[in-house]
Amino acid sequence: MRRAGGSRTGPALVRRLLAAAGALVVSTAVAGCADVPPGEPTGALAVVVGARSNMPPVDLDGVAGQVLGNAVDTQARVSFVVADGAPFVLATTQLETVGEDSAAWQASEAENLQQLRNSIASAAARSPEADLLAALGMAAGEIASAPGKRVVLVADSGLSTAGPLDFRRPGLLDADPGDVVASLQAAGSLPDLRGVHLVFQGLGDTAAPQPALSGVTRDQLVELWTAIGLAAGALDVNVERSPLEGEPAPGFPPVSVVSPGGGLTCTANTVVLGGGDVSFQADTAAFQDAAAAAAKLQPIADRMQAAGVTATLTGTTADVGDEEGQRQLSEQRAQAVADLLGGLGVPAERMTVVGLGSDFPGYVQDRDGSGTLDPAAAAQNRKVTIELVGAGPAVCA
Predict the structure, then answer these.
(1) Among 182-186, 283-287, 300-304, whose mean pLDDT is lowest?
(2) Domain with CATH 3.30.1330.60 in the chain
(3) Location of each CATH 3.40.50 domain in the chain
(4) Among 5, 45, 286, 289, which one is most buried in terms of CB atoms within 10 A?
(5) Cβ distance 203 to 218 under 8 Å?
(6) How far is residue 230's CA from residue 174's CA, in Å, rounded to a whole number?
(7) Any bridge partners for residue 304, and if so which?
């Protein structure tokens, strides 16, 4: 019961009071910051922009958008690099907050932020293809001597089609990130990102005619570029997962399509599992995404449940480690596929499992003359082949 002359402090009123108090604190804090004159310029930002065919236009968000705001706050020196087939520096500018009072400073900062976004929006590729690795090195070089915090912000799909990381090569998109990094290190192809904070947005985001990537392949691409950044000396790597969307502006130079693969290849009564949604975690028999693998294998399982259908599942590997270890891993992966098919209704007694390691017909030479592993070729050797007997032609989903 409410007492006469008393006050009611129920939950709704408390929330309103707290909200009002919070708003007061925030507005006071903002007003206090606005009254502080801008300090000396410090730090540097290099923005790598895809701005080309086969990927959406760039509209930075989340962590990537915050990087632009931080550059404005610190009055950083900013360079813009376009990641086409022959990366180039588009422009360099020194941000400066000007004015005599807080209102003028705020207006100046807003103008600087819009200038950054306009520069990104106006970037355009000049050369066909895309070489993100070279663009990263160029961007880091542009800010290497700058005092203060140095950030490289990358707005790109990550699907390079030129230079040492050319994803048009069969198998490279499915390659073990550790193998790719080791190969780039051996070739001296890693950019120098020492002392740089690296931020990505747009990895795996595509536009026609580039087919969309599956969730597993996108995650693999993110893992790869993260590994490259850390191996190249970046202090940290952050990936903004908010997607870039839309169609690129017309008139950009062409960029080759990268086959996203599907993880399955079907010919007659043979099904080959090699990467994509049916890929395995490195050096294990665990799927990258068991649910995605099951969805891919469901049509095969449906076909195998017909009366009289049997199958031999043969696992193979790259030439990594000793022969017995290769054989065991290849057999374990074939067994993992058999177990998954069993969970989808295929009787276990209809499946035979074999592991051949790297000694099998059709082996792709995955080491060069010096013994260095070729990650793309190695990925092609890491597969499980299903030979169906008593079934009609296999159908890959």
Answers:
(1) 300-304
(2) 264-389
(3) 44-240
(4) 45
(5) yes
(6) 20
(7) none
264-389 in CATH: which number? 3.30.1330.60
CA distances to 29, 98, 313, 371 from 39, rounded to whole Å, are: 18, 11, 67, 55
Sign of the dihedral through C-alpha 31, 148, 138, 211: negative
Three-state SS sequence of the chain: CCCCCCCCCCHHHHHHHHHHHHHHHHHHHHHHHHCCCCCCCCCEEEEEECCCCCCCCCCCCHHHHHHHHHHHHHCCEEEEEECCCCCEEEEEEECCCCCCCHHHHHHHHHHHHHHHHHHHHHCCCCCCCCCHHHHHHHHHHHCCCCCCCEEEEEECCCCCCCCCCCCCCCCHHHCCHHHHHHHHHHCCCCCCCCCCEEEEECCCCCCCCCCCCCHHHHHHHHHHHHHHHHHCCCCEEEEECCCCCCCCCCCCCCCCCCCCCCCEEEECCEEEECCHHHCECCCCCCECCHHHHHHHHHHHHHHHCCCCCEEEEEEECCCCCCHHHHHHHHHHHHHHHHHHHHHCCCCHHHEEEEECCCCCCCCCCCECCCCCECHHHHHHHCEEEEEEECCCCCCCC
Terminal CA-CA length for the chain: 67
Omega before residue 209 within 30° of 0, cis: yes
Quick: pLDDT tens for 142-173: 999 999 999 999 999 999 999 999 999 999 99
pLDDT value of position 308: 81
Give the gyration radius of the chain's Cα atoms. 27
Backbone angles phi, psi at 313, to 5 degrees: -105, 120
Measure CA 58 to chain center.
16
User: Are the C-beta atoms of residues 287 and 278 closer than 8 Å to each other?
Assistant: yes
Architecture of the domain defined by 44-240: 3-Layer(aba) Sandwich (3.40)
Q: Which two tokens stand for residue 3?
A: 């007492």
Rounded distance between C-alpha atoms, residue 357 and residue 326, angstroms: 4
Q: Which residues contact 16 (CB under 8 A, 6 or more apart)?
A: none
Positive/negative CA dihedral, 124, 130, 132, 137: negative
- The structure's pTM equals 0.88
Contact 366, 170 (CB under 8 A): no
301 and 346 Cβ atoms separated by less than 8 Å: yes
